[in-house]
Amino acid sequence: MSYLLFQISLVVYFAAMSTYVVFFLSQKNNVRQIARKIFLAGGLLHTLNIITRYLEAGHTPITSQHETVSFFAWAIVWCYLSFRWRYTVKNLGTFVSVMTVILMFIAALASREILPLVPALQSWWLPFHASVSIVADGFLALACIGGIMYLLQEREIKRKRFGMFYSRLPSLDALDKLNHHCLSVGFPLLTLGIITGSIWAKQAWGAYWHWDPKETWSLITWFLYAALVHQRFTVGWRGRPAAIMTIVAFLAVLFTLWGVNYLLGGIHTYAS
Predict the structure, then answer these.
(1) CA contacts within 13 A on the Cβ side of 138
(2) Cα separations (Å) of 271 from 88, 117, 192, 265?
(3) Computed from CA positions of residues 130, 131, 134, 140, in that sequence, does the dihedral angle turn out positive or negative?
(4) How far apart are CA 178 and CA 107, in angstroms?
(5) Mean pLDDT throughout 201-216?
(6) Spatial separation of the C-alpha atoms in residues 179 and 182, rounded to whole Å
């Protein structure tokens, strides 16, 4: 039942993305309103999918490749919807829907088999640590999307030959504010995720830190964002450098989530 809901969610997300693309090209407000409603419906169905998966598995469904990528896509959707509730950033939904569909397709290709939890995961820290960390990554994904949009818009302005993107993307100031907001939320959550992971490691393996590859890359990612936050909030770093750094730091997030499992191994490879 949960996988059927997952498939329906994927179809609805794809429909939302297609509608957002039509809006991006046509700039008709009625098309945008339809896209938003479809995207919200996809988020609600996806939530039902995760709840159903939880009931089937008997634990928080963030322990396999399929579950983790699906949960990551879900986090991005609701981080965007929470942001959209307070702020308006022109055509952000188009880019978010594309990233969501890509992640959902990746999740669909992974094994959906429900396996028993290994002893290290049999803890109430699992839902707290994993969900906080992935929601943090959801906000950081929005910051990355904002950085990409910033570079596209800046390129249009510098060329002084305004093409398709110039009239369809927000101002550079609006995109910089998006970056600021998402870092303000995502970085504290990322920090909390690392702290709770260390406490959990102490309970599971007897030490707060093992310099396992995933732990090491989590720390590298944290330092990248710490440097970015320091530069933005203390030095007043803005614009193109901040946008590029946001994208680079998010690549470290992706490598920490998946690249480590396949290339470096370690005690966290149960999640691969």
Answers:
(1) 25
(2) 36, 10, 20, 10
(3) negative
(4) 27
(5) 74
(6) 5
At position 5, the amino acid (one-letter code) is: L
Contact predicate 45/8, CB 8 Å = yes
Give domain limits for the chain.
Answer: 1-71+87-111, 124-272
Per-residue tokens: 164: 């398709």
Distance CA 5, CA 54 (A): 13
Q: Two tokens at 244?
A: 């590029």
Question: Which two structure tokens, joined as six digits, stand for 139?
Answer: 């906000």
Question: What digits encode the pLDDT tens for the residues 126-183?
Answer: 888 888 999 999 999 999 999 999 998 888 888 776 667 777 888 888 888 888 889 9
pTM over 0.85: yes
Per DSSP, 257 falls in state I
Q: Which two tokens stand for residue 133?
A: 């960390």
**Exposure on the CB side of residue 7, measured as CA atoms within 13 A:** 6
